[in-house]
Structure formats: C-alpha cells, structure tokens
Specification:
This protein is mostly beta strands. The chain has a single domain (about 1-140), classed as PCu(A)C copper chaperone (Immunoglobulin-like), CATH 2.60.40. Helix content is about 15%, strand content about 50%. Strands 1, 2, 3, 4, 5, 6, 7, 8, 9 and 10 form a ten-stranded mixed sheet that branches. A hairpin with a 7-residue loop joins strand 1 and strand 2 (about 40-50). The longest helix has 21 residues, at about 1-20. Mean pLDDT is about 85; it is low at about 5-20 and about 145-150.
C-alpha cells in the first residue's frame, strides 16, 4: 500500500513538472551570423508563459559559448549600452520578447563563428518550468528577424 502511494505521488509529481515545461512556449528563436574571429553573439526569441502563474527565465547556457548572459540594451544619453540583468520575469499569461535593441541573450566567447543555416543549441532555465531546450536558427547578418522572406 505504501509503495502504491509513493508511486502515485511520483507520477503526479512528474506530470506537474511536465505541465510546467509545456507552460513555456518559445517562438522564432534566432541569432545573426557572426564574422570570423568574433567572440560575441546575441540570441533572440519570444518566450510565452501560458500558465496563470508567473515564472522567471533565470539563466541560459550553450555548448557553443563559454557563457550565456541575459542582457538588456539601455539608452544612456546618445549611447546605447548593453547590461547584464539577473533574468527576465514572465507574468502569468504573459510574454517576453528578446529582440535586437532590447532584451537578448549574449553569448560570450563563442567557440566558432555562427554561420547562416546552422542551429545553436541553448538550454533555458526557468524558476518554475525548469530547463527548456531550444535551437536558435542562424540567419544571415543584417536580417532583423521580422517579416523575413522565405
């Protein structure tokens, strides 16, 4: 009887974890191609929280970079500056847009240039949803990601 109860709790617990991961939807994950010798790259996407509860994107990592940081771009007088932030809040039924000129993922010390057509594996870590894996599509330099022709 006791093992049946423990098994039931484990199954329901795993179902709850699976439901949390499904509560996060990633739309249009992409990055720009980098030039040879580049050490930095940026990643963009829309992160949608379909749950009623808030969540938080706390960090990211990729095997193709020494480190991935969560950044924002701020205007300081006439100068645009990037700054690391401790993640992004996702309100219940809300979204966060990571886009050029705003919030984005910053890939530090990339191990090789990002080339058009490649896919960059990234693990996103959420406070409640846990780890969500995504692949960023590398687009040619100069493409903004919006209204792209196929």
């Amino acid at each position: 009887m006791r093992s049946l109860l423990l098994s039931s709790l484990l199954v329901f617990g795993l179902q709850a974890i699976a439901q949390d991961k499904r509560a996060i939807e990633i739309e249009d994950p992409w990055s720009r191609a980098t030039s040879p010798g580049a050490t930095l790259a940026a990643g963009y996407m829309t992160v949608r929280n379909t749950s009623e509860e808030r969540d938080r994107l706390m960090s990211a990592s990729s095997p193709l970079a020494r480190k991935v940081e969560t950044h924002v771009t701020l205007k300081d007088g006439n100068i645009m500056r990037m700054r690391e932030v401790p993640g992004y809040d996702l309100p219940g039924r809300g979204r966060v847009e990571l886009k050029p000129g705003g919030a984005h993922l910053m890939f530090i010390d990339i191990k090789q240039p990002f080339k058009p057509g490649e896919k960059i594996p990234v693990s996103l870590r959420f406070e409640k949803a846990g780890e969500v894996r995504v692949e960023l599509q590398v687009r040619a330099a100069g493409i903004s990601g919006e209204h792209q022709m196929h």
